[in-house]
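Why show two proteins at once? Because comparison is the fastest way to build intuition. When a single record is shown, students tend to memorize it. When two are placed side by side, the eye starts asking what differs. So, the first record is below.
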Amino acid sequence: MNSILFNTILTNGTVTAGSFLAATLCSVALGLLLALLFRQKKGFSQSYLTTLVILPAAVQMIIMLVNGNIGAGVATAGAFSLVRFRSAPGSSQEITGIFITMAVGIATGMGYLGIAALFAAGMGLLFLALSKIGFGSDGDERILKITIPETLDYDGVFDEVFDRYTKKYELEEVRTTDMGSLYKLTYKLKMKHESAVKAMIDELRVRNGNLEISCGRPVLKADDL
């Protein structure tokens, strides 16, 4: 069993037609597996998922061609640096997916197909499990924007409502609008119960004179890690 999982399919580091084909098929299959697992977490684009499928085979090809050649290895490192500087920054989850698929490609490129399969399945399932349970999350976070008339003293006017529906709240921004006749307040909230958003907004409407209120989830920037 250990010989199958932890031994390389390459003989003395020599790449044959059979080993190349086996490694390439394994790379594509594991890339597809990772893409399907990452697809369960919404927010990834089609182009990104396609990249996850193809990248392990591309990295595997590079590793097989380098195969101990120092000069080729240095040239490859330079090529990767150019790709990095010409790429748009991604989220931490996107970068994690890229690193996982590259590790899979390196493993298959060295002939360790069993290790690559165990690593891809393990990391993919771990990512999915952590996302499902909301690991690292501190509650249901929302961004609340409330419009109030200039005559309303906003300091503490909504505290009673927030105390009832939220675990934590913080006033992040105050700005004027409509020639100074209105204020727009931006709060960051952590809800006690997700289903209570409508009830909270209904109570806030009574206090702000039924002016505009919006409540949504925070949008992470591409470079937020």
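Second record. Ask yourself what differs from the first in the token line.
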Amino acid sequence: MSAQVSNVALVTGASRGIGAAVAERLARDGFTVVINYAGDAASAEALARKIEAAGGRALTAQADVADPAAVRRMFDAAETAFGGVDVLVNNAGILQLSPLADADDELFDRTIAINLKGTFNTLREAGRRLRSGGRIINFSTSIVGTLLPTYGIYAATKAGVEAMTHIMAKELRGRSITVNAVAPGPTATELFLKGKTPELIDHMAKMAPLERLGQPGDIANVVSFLAGPDGGWVNGQVLRANGGMV
């Protein structure tokens, strides 16, 4: 699949962080990008203007991925504007740390709703609507490998995403659609840095043999590979982009 202007990529949670880097990179690759956001309209619009100023095409689409009806409307809007969707990048997610014994029901339910049900909601629409030859790229986490304390609920949602990734790759047989997941390690985004001491950040940066935090662009490069022509033979896989941490 070549990344021409007619190819459309929908990136969830794309107003900032890794999602914004992915949207920018896919726009540079030639995709028309649908920038999904939950609440930060200003950042999403600013990103769309930035992409268009660089010669790309972008549309913003507000939707809470946990809401199936909102997800359907988002796909409807993309189809109305551009005729269809070729690439889905499931980046939207939340992270709040807590030992399992201390976690309340609200934290569990909200994390499941966005990280797991949200991914299911978009996968369901993509399974019905994605054009032949398309790509689905989910987001997991390298925590599924490191299994660090306090990450239990978050890791559980991402383990579920990995399971759906492997299975959906098989379910889409005959449509030339690949389904893969990217599992970042510690990456220098607001989501990761918030609430951490400089000492903890430095410690986590040193966990990888390459001795640094990932950058959003590092992760966007992997998504670009999977979405582009060179990634067409990779299917049903989880690529851990973490500098060798696990």
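One difference worth noting in the second protein: The radius of gyration is 17 Å.
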